[in-house]
Amino acid sequence: MSSSPDRVLVTGGAGFVGSHAAAYYDDRGSKVTVLDNLSRVDTLETADESRNTAAYNWNYLEEEHPDVELLEGDIRDYDRLEEVVEGHNAVVHTAGQVAVTASIQDPRTDFEVNAQGTFNVLEAARTAESDPAVVIASTNKVYGDNVNAIPVREADSRYWYDDSEFEDGIPESLSIDDCEHTPYGVSKLTADLYVQDYAERNEVDAAAFRMSCIYGTRQFGNEDQGWVAHFALSTLRDEPLTIFGDGKQVRDVLYVEDLIRAYDAFLSDPEEKPAVYNIGGGTENTTSLIEFLDLLEEKTGKRSEITFDDWREGDQKVYVSDISRARDELNWVPNVDFEEGIDRFIEWYEEY
């Protein structure tokens, strides 16, 4: 079995996923560099200082992982990025504009960060003498509204696919064409396609991981992004919640450390691997919003006051990842089931 890369750059390393990647590799003895512009709380309309993921995780890495080199910088600054990438043999690219809502309000910034920023990362990797492999945090939103063209059936507390072709979830082969996407979906798809192109032409060993709902400790969700943490934090803090839609929408959920293990499985041995993976909890780890509120009530004895609002642009009634490619090609399966992951989140929150 190949070993983990020993010199790892994490873009967006003060973010939720990025900080877990930085900690993961530092724990394994790799030399880790984090690059982050610490902008998240300014770019998300519903984020506030009490949920400032970047500030919290920057401080966390400083205190708990003092060997990690922390650099403030922006992936849109190509000259700086080129300097930083050189010398690393792996890049975990998690920097990005993260919300559909923000992309609709400001599509130019969304494009510059997600599409051009990823292009910069790939170019810096291509020209670096250290020849790093690259993984990028892509999204299920690349499939756009085609997901909603799949028939669903309604049960008491959830929707589910009503087509046997999708009983294992959404495969990587689902069409990305002839549908509405939202600017966020388009910018992430652009990045995703560049990754595939650079990989196919052997310019960079690279893969896009099209993520479903990733959750875990040190995540401060809000209405726009990170709904599992948003629901959990709101419940624990006795804050009201708005559900857009009817609450029966279903997602597969993946604990963040399991995601990082999937990244590492690719980066440790990237040659002749596919460049695209749907990644999530799969059919074994699914929940609807209503079912999750029930689970939180069971665990905490609390339930937020709920109001309902209209479905939002880009929302999907059901999204569950078919994770068979990651299983077959990367020898990977999720280790942490949803209930255990939520126990860990609640325990972290109570300490925090």
Automatic annotation (TrEMBL):
<protein>
    <submittedName>
        <fullName>CDP-paratose 2-epimerase</fullName>
    </submittedName>
</protein>
<dbReference type="Pfam" id="PF01370">
    <property type="entry name" value="Epimerase"/>
</dbReference>
<dbReference type="InterPro" id="IPR001509">
    <property type="entry name" value="Epimerase_deHydtase"/>
</dbReference>
<comment type="similarity">
    <text>Belongs to the NAD(P)-dependent epimerase/dehydratase family.</text>
</comment>
<dbReference type="InterPro" id="IPR036291">
    <property type="entry name" value="NAD(P)-bd_dom_sf"/>
</dbReference>
<feature type="domain" description="NAD-dependent epimerase/dehydratase">
    <location>
        <begin position="8"/>
        <end position="280"/>
    </location>
</feature>
